[in-house]
Amino acid sequence: MKIGILQCDDVRAYLQDEFGNYPQMFIHLFAALNLSEVPSFVFYRVMDGQYPQHMDDCDGYITTGCRWSVNYDEPWVHAFYMYINQLHVAKKKCIGICFGHQMMAKALGGEVAHSPNGWGVGVMTSQLLQPMPWMARGVDDMSAFALVMSHQDQVIKLPEAAKVLAGSNFCPNGMFQIDTHFLGIQGHPEFSKGYSSALMLVRAKSIGEKRLAQGQLSLNQETDELWIGQSMINFLLS
């Protein structure tokens, strides 16, 4: 399987020596799954206007997070909005992570705005509302999963065709599916706890002292990124 990573941002340069850039984070996530058939990856810097020459160059796509908002009035953001629409019309398999999750919702008629609850940072738990056949083994025993989060915006209104799969009081639309080809995930299965901690410190002033302390403390919790990672592979193969 050939997966195209639609890269919407870079990790800050001074953090890359320790944590890598987004491509390395996704490679590390999927390598940890010990898959019998390891997918190949192609990376497209969509924030620099780089896209696949043909949509079918890859079997499916994953979009990364981004420090900017899907509501920013920037040419590359508008171009990305259009490409997500094109993927949808073609019913091409695509998984949106954080910014990508939000762009999927906005591009198909939903709404994205600053969360009324403030920043979502650190490890946060989502309730599994609707198990799906492509989810990794063990889903029958799971009522919730925990992931690293890092978002100020969130999906406040889903497109009509979207089905909520997981959420929380903090982020009700934490995971959704559209038809059999689009999957949106607000959390970051590719983020390590160390990177989450460093990123919170970078954004400390914006996050606020109380939420920062809560976020840092939450990193002591166990996370389910491997379950999510395997489920992502299953979704792309389904």
Q: What are the salient characteristics of this protein?
A:
8 helices, single chain, 11 strands, Rossmann fold
Structure description:
This protein has 238 residues and is an alpha/beta fold. The chain has one domain: Rossmann fold. It contains eight helices and eleven strands. It has helices at residues 13-19, 22-31, 75-89, 99-107, 193-202, 204-207, 209-218, 225-237, and strands spanning 2-7, 40-45, 60-63, 94-97, 111-114, 120-128, 144-151, 153-157, 162-167, 175-178, 182-185. The strands form two sheets. Strands 2-1-3-4-11-10-9-6-7 form a nine-stranded mixed sheet, sandwiched between helices. Strand 9 and strand 10 form a beta hairpin. The longest helix is centred in the middle third of the chain and has 15 residues, at 75-89. The mean pLDDT is 96.
Structural class: alpha/beta
Kindly report the spatial arrangement of strands forming the biggest sheet: 2-1-3-4-11-10-9-6-7
* H-E order: EHHEEHEHEEEEEEEHHHH
The third-level CATH topology is Rossmann fold
> Rg to the nearest angstrom?
16 Å
The shape, in one word, is: globular
**Spatial separation of the terminal alpha carbons:** 12 Å
Architecture per CATH nomenclature, i.e. the level-2 architecture: 3-Layer(aba) Sandwich
Strand content is: 25-35%
CATH class: Alpha Beta
Mean pLDDT: 96
What's the count of strands? Answer: 11
